[in-house]
Amino acid sequence: MKAFPLTRFLCLALLLSSVVLTGQQRYQGDLSSYTAAEKAWVDSVFSTLSIDGQIGQLMMIRAHSDRGADHIAHVKAEIKKYQVGGLCFFQGTPEKQLQLTNEYQTLSSIPLMVSMDAEWGLGMRLPDQTISFPKQLALGAIRDNKLIYDMGAEIARQMHHMGVNVSFSPVLDVNNNPNNPVIDTRSFGEDRYNVTIKGYQYMRGLQDNGILASAKHFPGHGDTGTDSHYNLPVIAHNRARLDSLELYPFQALVRYGIGSVMAAHLQIPALDDRPNRPSSLSKPIVYDLLRKEMGFTGLVFTDGLEMKGVTNHYGNGEVEAEAIAAGSDILLLPESTADAFTAIKRYMNEGKITSADLERKVRRILLSKYRLGLRKTRTLPLDNLRGHLNTAGAYALKQTLFENAMTLVKDGERLVPINDLERGKIVSVHVGLNAPTAFSKRLDDYGQITHLNAGYNLSSADRERILAKIAEDDLVIIGLYSDGSRFREKVPVTAGVLSLLRGIDAKARMIVSVFGNPYSLAALDGSAGTVLMAYSRDEVAQDAAAQALFGANRITGRLPITASPGAVFNAGIETSASFRMGYAEPEAVGMNGNKLAAKVDLLAREAMRRKATPGMVVLAARSGKIVYEKAYGYHTYSRRKEVHTSDIYDLASVTKVCATTISIMKLVDEGKLSLDLPISNYLPGLEGSAVEFLTLRPMLAHRAGLRSWIPFYTETLNQSGKPSSQFYRKAPTGDFVVPVSENLYMHRVYLDSMWHKIYNNELPNEGQYRYSDLGFYLMAKIVDQVSGLTVDEFADRNFYRPMGLTTLTFKPLKKFPKSRIPPSENDNYFRHERVQGTVHDMGAAMLGGVSGHAGLFGTARDVATIFQMLLQEGNYGGRQYLRPETVRLFASRYTNETRRGLGFDMKQLNENRKMNLSPMASERAFGHLGFTGIAVWADPVEDLVFVALSNRTYPSMNNNTFGKLDTRLRLHTAMYESITKHSSFEDRRSVQVGKLP
């Protein structure tokens, strides 16, 4: 046999030589030698075994946890009567399987070796109850091979909780046959090096954490069109070809410590030319090639012996006896244990199997059990089993794997990542599954998407219906979903689908996302210029695809196979993350999700129980990922309308930063404003006024000397405290056109009175810090005068619309139903009506709902996005909205100030004053609070954004329980308490905002 060229693989393998082990002891795959302790145990156990007991150790029988009493009784009888050595579990539930494992173990004098097919995790056999990681073909696209190790380690951790010792993985078949009916998505792909290094990483992840890995299906099941479950496949290649391709990954993993190999049911004439001789029953293949030539010293399992590929040509028990004679150690799923015993004993009597052969096999099995910790019977706890299996960390890993698998196969028009949200509309067409899907839901988080559905067998009328809803400037995102088949995940690209794609491509910009088998790409050659391969219709894959399209994550995957001339092996365009908000599990960004959720839930329930607020939304984002977003309670205490994360809250003074301050920053960037020139340069008519010589810098820091606020509304009430008819009407008429609330309109002339009072109010706090709304009234006026746009128009045009922030708006009732907006107050002092959808602040209301200090509404997610943009020093979605130096300037403390930046609130450094945010926050944290029960804080040191929205002012703004409980501060602290891995300056994705010189 020729030497395998393993130099390239060895270089990659050495990168893992410093892996640090956790918890479980590493499994050593070489069973050719013992330690003294191992030999003593194996000798003592072997000495107790009769011939029947030795044969029993060779048997690994089928076990289910979803079958009835008869099946359970049968398994128990086999354990007692035949002293079988192991079990292979299939379908059922985790709890029932562990319960049965505990019961079965107590029946066996020698602990049972328990196995599962867990190629993509426990979900392969226990779907919908345990986690299914990506199948190996998707993993083949990943370039960071350490992630494959991490998956193996996580599967090992879960298996220990289940009492499982053997994972029949990794699959080392090199899949170079697109029509392979049984391997396909189970292979890492068509390239021997890619299959080898990923198989090695998977094996190390399992065995470093105490689980026996099994390389399958030896000597290589990748190039066949026959399913060995039903017939015997033939591999007709010559020896040189087998050495160079099929055998290559097996030789490599044998050399580097794989603990077991599974012998497949294949006919390979170049290795054994006997007719109908499966490789699993072939001594030239199992013993001569695997054991002698390749030097394998671990366990050899047969593939399932019930499979028709092996049973069709042999009598009862002969399959099992032939497998043992060929060199296998463990008989997986014998058709009949009794027949197997009979045949093996007959073969021993005939000299086809010697007692020495049997002893060597049994000793290998016992040594393996010793190394797996199977020295004595253990009963494992069932308490909170699914909680131990389906951890947030495991879900975070699954998400990371799919994110790294995403492959941009081609992008001729450079449409990905999607950055231009203002050109045309975005239409999503879902073929094979009807929206809402996980893909469509995540797309909705990035803009206003029109969703259309189509079947694979769509008619010409369906095609025309869809095309009629698409315009020339639109961007159309196609989702092609697989048929859900277990191994193949076929995407049936029909003639009707191709006709639709060609019609859309001729009319608009088009991106095709394929949620299934990459071999499906062959049908798309010439029909799509931009294709994202997502590999599976798993909901996590769908989510990852949507985030990748909008640039929340980099796309780095490479095709693991060749599907067509237009989709070749290793194809893949890398994209840069466009610093758009993404979504992840807390564990993915170094936070403890369970701890965070428990604390936030506790604080939210306390606030609602104490009637501090009827409901709230809490959001946390770290490293650009939203990791926690949850709604609590109701819009009102009547409990009729539940709060949703999509609800739009009155943001009160957060308007100062999310509208006015960023607008001022933009105008400073453009050279249209100076922070140090008198504002009279920008506002005509201020000559001789009290504010003539004020400058923006101290105004932003609340050090301009202005009073806190002016209660304008009190002068417009009659003697009974109701709105005076001199100033108001219940409907717009004549000059009564300023909308104060839904049923109250003010005379336009009073606007002049308001501005006169602001301009000519004395400066009672000159030289002192005094929080003031009045400066922000003036700043909104400045934005209007300098830009020609009101502050709401300016912020919308320059920030909200291009960033895709559809809910950040003033006067929300013009865009959204009232049902999405929690009420702010039952006003009995001014408007005398429920304030819902119009601004709560009285002064902002009297300006028609638009002011620099209040009036903005929005969701937690959109507020968080503004602050993520600021953390990223003005960059978002591939666009620079503000210069980094401007962000740093405004988010730094004003000279000699203990709390305020320019426009932004910051952590109070004076220990004699009340803390305004979490004491755990860094000194560079910045944000703002809002009167209605709002908080938003960003911390550059921890790359953390926190948002809390509530309507604590309902039904009365005089309810101060929310503040007395310090709910916002304590929620903010919960964010920090959940951090398990702190950011470092090197790890942070953006430059330090507000860094002092």
TrEMBL record:
Pfam families associated with the record: Beta-lactamase, Glyco_hydro_3
Reaction(s) this enzyme catalyzes, per UniProt: Hydrolysis of terminal non-reducing N-acetyl-D-hexosamine residues in N-acetyl-beta-D-hexosaminides
InterPro entries, per database record: Beta-lactam-related, Beta-lactam/transpept-like, GH, Glyco_hydro_3_N, Glyco_hydro_3_N_sf, NagZ_Beta-hexosaminidase
Signal peptide feature range: 1-22
Keywords, alphabetical: Glycosidase, Hydrolase, Signal
All residue ranges annotated as the Glycoside hydrolase family 3 N-terminal domain in the record: 51-366
Enzyme superclass (EC): hydrolase
Domain Beta-lactamase-related: 602-956
Signal among keywords: yes
Family designation: Belongs to the glycosyl hydrolase 3 family.
Stated name of the protein: beta-N-acetylhexosaminidase
Species of origin: Neolewinella agarilytica
